[in-house]
Amino acid sequence: xxxxxxxxxxxxxxxxxxxxxxxxxxxxxxxxxxxxxxxxxxxxxxxxxxxxxxxxxxxxxxxxxxxxxxxxxxxxxxxxxxxxxxxxxxxxxxxxxxxxxxx
Length: 103
Prior knowledge:
Blueprint: E1 21-25, E2 28-32, H1 39-45, E3 63-68, E4 71-72, E5 86-88, E6 93-94, E7 98-101
C-alpha cells in the first residue's frame, strides 16, 4: 500500500529520455546527467549547497521541497521521515524536469 507521500514510480512507469533532466533551483537551471548517482551528487557537482549526513536515506538531513516534477527512489522508499512535498536528495533521481526549494 502506498502512502500519500509516496513519490516513487513503478518500474513500468519510468520514463526514458534522451536528454538530461533540468533541475530548477536557487534561480538557476542545472542538468541531471546519466552519470549522476543521485540528486544530491548532481547538486553538489553544480555547486548547490545541500545539507546531508548519511547519504543513504536514514537521517533526512538532505530534505528539500519538490515544487514541480517527479522523482524516483531506485532503492525503495527512504527510512527517514519525508513530509508532504518533500524529497530526500541523497537517494532519489528525477524522472522528469523538476523544480526544488532548498531552505
